[in-house]
Amino acid sequence: MPVVRTLTRVAKQMTLSPACGCQVSVMPIRSIGFSPRQVPSDASFHSVSFSETDHPRVLITGGLGQLGVGLAKLLRKRYGKNNVILSDIRKPPDSVFYSGPFIYSDILDYKNLREIVVNNRITWLIHYSALLSAVGEANVPLARAVNITGLHNILDIAAEHGLRLFVPSTIGAFGPTSPRNPTPDLCVQRPRTIYGVSKVHAELMGEYYHYRYGLDFRCLRYPGIISADSQPGGGTTDYAVQIFHDAIKTGRFTCNLKPDTRLPMMYIDDCLKATLEVMEAPASSLTMRTYNINAMSFTPEELAQEVQKHMTELEVVYDVDAIRQAIADSWPMNFDDSNARKDWGWKHDFDMAELVTTMLNYLNSERLAFQAN
Ligand SMILES: NC(=O)C1=CN([C@@H]2O[C@H](COP(=O)(O)OP(=O)(O)OC[C@H]3O[C@@H](n4cnc5c(N)ncnc54)[C@H](O)[C@@H]3O)[C@@H](O)[C@H]2O)C=CC1
Ligand SMILES: CC(=O)[C@H](N)C(=O)O
């Protein structure tokens, strides 16, 4: 029985392969004769490995959210405009549409995804599509479909075509029984949101595909991300973006979390830098496939005080949203990212003071430009 023999060999390799994940191609899909979707073993004939091209050919899913456009800008600067394709199910604004390749892609449509990967000779896939924590709780069936079924499509396409795959996870992948201050990479993960559950599932499935099929899966657990030129998509950490907009527009901010709710946070430039760095890191430097990354940790009260150093007149009131508060109370307060710092040299640039100055400078200059027109 050759199939049984092959599987026995594969099983032996699995037991022998080091837990570090340094051997990327321990079990190529071809060696077991079927891909995760049961396609014939030669179905990946059209895949293009990174070494065959000067630059990776990158597809970003869910690219019109808070993070995708900024990441596309960074990657296009590095790899060339036409080597980075943004995709989403929404209509892009003119500024995005005319800044580089954009394509419609619904991650729930497997055939369409595969066609995009094949026709555009994609080698790296950055999977940003998701429903975040608060919107996920408001629509659990949709969150389950996009975050879990969609991820399965992504994993299969990536494994079938030999892609390097990045899937972000989050502080939301931890729950009330996790150590919260600090939260290490490896500990109990029992989140209580569909978002968190789907992200733990993504971490585990990605790592499983790595060891089982040799998928080059890379994952960072992002903290709450703060950006000036893009809006957050419905998360628990959104208050830390909204405070800046309201401070500039009205001088008054109503916070939906309690003043002493401490959460890990990061400025978007650091988040995108980390993503690029982990994607470029040699596989031999990665002792794990999923890393915490962090920059700072603060409460709404501490953030408000820092903003008030620049805008003494800012008034902050609290009107707590019970659902968001319960989520925040189950998440890490401080994130231990020592493994990322040790393995691939992760280092953040923005602390809270730098973040606040940068956000206010950006939004103020935007307001002045708007008034001048
Ligand atoms: N922004 C943050 O603070 C954090 C984000 N992350 C993760 O980073 C990734 C990107 O986050 P954001 O840009 O903030 O998210 P976002 O919510 O702003 O954007 C998500 C995008 O996914 C798209 N999408 C929804 N359903 C889709 C489908 N069926 N097919 C294709 N696209 C679909 C939406 O149209 C949207 O543009 C997500 O996976 C998120 O979980 C993780 C931790 C923190
Ligand atoms: C931290 C996240 O994953 C996101 N910003 C959310 O609050 O849901």
Automatic annotation (TrEMBL):
<protein>
    <recommendedName>
        <fullName>L-threonine 3-dehydrogenase, mitochondrial</fullName>
        <ecNumber>1.1.1.103</ecNumber>
    </recommendedName>
</protein>
<dbReference type="GO" id="GO:0008743">
    <property type="term" value="F:L-threonine 3-dehydrogenase activity"/>
</dbReference>
<comment type="pathway">
    <text>Amino-acid degradation; L-threonine degradation via oxydo-reductase pathway; glycine from L-threonine: step 1/2.</text>
</comment>
<feature type="domain" description="NAD-dependent epimerase/dehydratase">
    <location>
        <begin position="58"/>
        <end position="293"/>
    </location>
</feature>
<dbReference type="InterPro" id="IPR051225">
    <property type="entry name" value="NAD(P)_epim/dehydratase"/>
</dbReference>
<comment type="function">
    <text>Catalyzes the NAD(+)-dependent oxidation of L-threonine to 2-amino-3-ketobutyrate, mediating L-threonine catabolism.</text>
</comment>
<dbReference type="InterPro" id="IPR001509">
    <property type="entry name" value="Epimerase_deHydtase"/>
</dbReference>
<comment type="similarity">
    <text>Belongs to the NAD(P)-dependent epimerase/dehydratase family.</text>
</comment>
<dbReference type="GO" id="GO:0006567">
    <property type="term" value="P:L-threonine catabolic process"/>
</dbReference>
<dbReference type="Pfam" id="PF01370">
    <property type="entry name" value="Epimerase"/>
</dbReference>
<dbReference type="InterPro" id="IPR036291">
    <property type="entry name" value="NAD(P)-bd_dom_sf"/>
</dbReference>
